[in-house]
């Protein structure tokens, strides 16, 4: 798949590189695994020579041997003996950067925890000493969010506060997904687009795999995901076990419960069979995989809350792959595909609501939006969207099929909403339906 989007991030990385010619810059590129951080960095810096260090799980001596060869070739630095510690190599680069601007990319940066954790304190000391005279453009990224957060946001860590910029890399926006799909299938249907969104959440690697596999509609996408040898089948384990560490079993049980529709705290706890409060907090705050969802305009301390997986791909993976691991072990890929095909329309309903939230966010249409429901579960509104600046409040019912939208019922539910939130009654109110036709 060709390279799409990321214009603003590329421009920012190149602007930082220019500023490094005056004084050193230290940029941390963040984002969930598979979102395209490495490809973005390479794309931004490819127009000039740069150093790219991949921190594999090797000995420090072996890593440095490979890094040193690259330094000698790219920076034209004559051989300077055998370097066995990254600290010594980084010192050479900082000295070189006092004479000439260089860009240094360190990928899988968190792996220094396994190679030699003292690297972080050594880098901090060297950076502090050389930063004022250096013209290094240092860019680091990593795939284990938990460890990257610890390295740069934990005030007890040596590199805390050292980075001069942090660039988040998000999944593709919905408009970019449209561009991608239309470049492969110009006459794509709304259901094709929703299927791509529901299965990938706009994560670059997953989109690329489906496009490269020639999977442009729901049926072919499901075949691609559930065929023998598909990387999708083990993706949740590959990505999350490393994130969660030894407690991954509990985290997987929580995510599986939520994906299966047990979204209230008590329901999740009963499914998991142990206290889950701390795990839920980490899943939301540290891993950003779930969110505690409250009716819009409710107090943050409200008890009428539910949990949802805040990542489309993992919501799909836990619902259709992890839940049926026994079928995978039996190599019943046909059965897995049949189950997903059978349940997909119902499953994609909430994904459609999420799609419109992302769409409206991209369009900067509202200042606040979310769903609303009452405590008894008698009234529920899919999307309540506020434009505080214009004094507007829009109510939406979201259905795959437009003929199922009932605006009269939506208005009745809005009456119940306004009874709970009377201070909003003076807003300009509007009521509408959203369906596949509006994608």
Structure report:
- This protein is an alpha/beta fold.
- The protein is globular, with a radius of gyration of 25 Å.
- The chain has helices at 7-20, 37-45, 60-74, 86-97, 112-115, 118-130, 145-153, 174-184, 190-200, 204-212, 218-226, 235-244, 248-259, 265-272, 277-285, 312-320, 325-329, 333-363, 407-420, and strands spanning 25-30, 51-54, 102-107, 136-141, 165-168, 290-293, 306-309, 368-373, 380-387, 392-398, 428-434.
- 49% of the residues lie in helices and 14% in strands.
- Helix 1 (7-20) packs across helix 2 (37-45).
- The longest helix has 31 residues, at 333-363.
- The strands form three sheets. Strands 2-3-4-1-5 form a five-stranded parallel β-sheet. Strands 8-9-10-11 form a four-stranded mixed β-sheet. Strands 6-7 form a two-stranded antiparallel ribbon.
Structural shape: globular
Q: Number of DSSP strands?
A: 11
Major beta sheet, strand line-up:
2-3-4-1-5
Largest sheet entry: 5 strands, parallel
Count the DSSP helices: 19
Low-confidence stretches: none
Give the termini separation. Answer: 23 Å
β content, as a range? 5-15%
Cα-atom Rg, whole angstroms?
25 Å
- List SSEs in N-to-C order: HEHEHHEHHEHEHHHHHHHHEEHHHEEEHE
How does the helix and strand content classify structurally?
alpha/beta
Task: Summarize this entry quickly.
This protein is of the alpha/beta class and 439 residues long. Helix content is 49%, strand content 14%.
